[in-house]
């Protein structure tokens, strides 16, 4: 079994002065939700997600060796980096990156030897309410791994991607599910071989053709800043009255998904996915302090989806993130009808009529 210390490198065999890498990494949408964590970004329960395709972060990492007149002492040296968002310096993103570098330094001991320029952009609109932390942390982790691979050319591909996911997790938990494609599990689960609390793994069992090219249309209900961040939300699962039962339920739901993915039973799929979404929000509503992230239009959309599904028997369902936006999930063969329904009946509930069409995708790509 892997432990975190397996990701502390031994001596590097190679050197490099400067250069740059560029990676794109997608967002992902959880079907079984990660909500609640222990120290060091260890999830309280296992989760599973669809990796997305169009919603992604593209990050370029420039690096050059630092030379100072005084030797860089390990205790006094600071990280040296510039952060650009869409080509312009973005000071308010820096503390999050600084914290990320501090967390991963033990696993990437070269970090203080270089000055970095991190140049990042998203393909989805800024402040759309779509969290960019999953795609963003994953894209950055991929770049750092590219640099480590130059320093240690013997590194296997398997280690490369596993460690990238491990590092991304330390930036943002859900980010570890954005490295690889299609269906990714994060968190130890008894019946999913190879599953780990330390990194995401590709779902190892059969996936029915019904789920190939599964569609996710993201309805932007509220693009404002959330009143309660995910970090605070996770924290409120400590001493939460329903936490233990909820964590057990995530294991059960993942078990159910193993057979659902194999059989392609969309009716059962919908039950698990919608229940997970509402349970996530029920956890928020039963936290102390309690809070609600759904908006009236979130509920309008949910009710309209239920009505449409009842009337047409088309297997369309919803899931929610930690916010008001609604992810509408459906198989590719009903796309035309569902998109028509979205335009006719759901767009009115979106802020400025905005929505984003996405689908299952393959994970991070070197550019
Ligand atoms: C509701 O990964 O954003 O989207 O680890 O604190 O960065 P941190 O949290 P984050 O939490 C995401 C929670 C969720 C469910 C999920 O994606 O599984």
TrEMBL record:
Residues 218-346 form the Mvd1 C-terminal domain. One of its GO terms (molecular function) is ATP binding. One of its GO terms (biological process) is isoprenoid biosynthetic process. It comes from the Bacteria. This is Diphosphomevalonate decarboxylase. InterPro entries: GHMP_kinase_C_sf, Mev_decarb, MVD-like_N, Mvd1_C, Ribosomal_Su5_D2-typ_SF, Ribsml_uS5_D2-typ_fold_subgr. PANTHER family: DIPHOSPHOMEVALONATE DECARBOXYLASE (PTHR10977). Keywords: ATP-binding, Lipid biosynthesis, Lipid metabolism, Lyase, Nucleotide-binding. Residues 25-191 form the Diphosphomevalonate decarboxylase-like N-terminal domain.
């Amino acid at each position: 079994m892997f432990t975190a210390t397996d990701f502390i490198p031994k001596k590097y065999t190679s050197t490099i002065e400067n250069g740059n890498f560029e990676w794109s990494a997608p967002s992902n949408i959880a079907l079984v939700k990660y909500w609640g964590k222990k120290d060091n970004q260890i999830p309280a329960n296992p989760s599973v997600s669809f990796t997305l395709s169009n919603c992604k972060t593209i990050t370029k990492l420039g690096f050059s060796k630092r030379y100072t007149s005084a030797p860089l002492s390990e205790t006094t040296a600071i990280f040296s980096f510039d952060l650009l968002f869409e080509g312009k310096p973005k000071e308010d993103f820096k503390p999050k990156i600084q914290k990320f570098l501090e967390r991963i330094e033990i696993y990437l001991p070269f970090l203080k030897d270089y000055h970095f320029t991190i140049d990042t952009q998203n393909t989805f609109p800024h402040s759309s309410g779509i969290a960019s932390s999953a795609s963003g942390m994953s894209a950055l982790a991929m770049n750092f791994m590219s640099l480590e691979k130059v320093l240690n050319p013997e590194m296997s591909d398997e280690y490369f991607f596993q460690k990238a996911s491990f590092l991304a997790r330390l930036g943002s938990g859900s980010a570890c599910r954005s490295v690889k494609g299609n269906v990714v599990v994060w968190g130890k689960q008894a019946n999913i071989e190879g599953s780990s609390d330390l990194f995401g793994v590709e779902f190892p069992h059969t996936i029915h053709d019904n789920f190939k090219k599964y569609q996710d249309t993201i309805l932007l209900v509220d693009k404002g800043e959330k009143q309660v961040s995910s970090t605070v939300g996770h924290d409120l699962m400590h001493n939460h009255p329903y936490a233990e039962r909820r964590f057990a339920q995530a294991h059960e739901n993942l078990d159910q998904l193993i057979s659902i993915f194999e059989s392609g039973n969309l009716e059962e799929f919908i039950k698990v996915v919608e229940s997970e979404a509402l349970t996530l929000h029920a956890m928020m509503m039963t936290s102390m302090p309690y809070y609600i992230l759904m908006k009236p239009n979130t509920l309008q959309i949910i009710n309209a989806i239920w009505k449409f599904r009842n009337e047409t028997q088309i297997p369309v369902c919803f899931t929610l993130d930690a916010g008001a936006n609604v992810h509408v999930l459906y198989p590719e063969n009903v796309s035309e009808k569902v998109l028509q329904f979205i335009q006719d009946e759901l767009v009115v509930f979106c802020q400025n009529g905005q929505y984003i069409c996405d689908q299952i995708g393959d994970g991070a790509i070197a550019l």
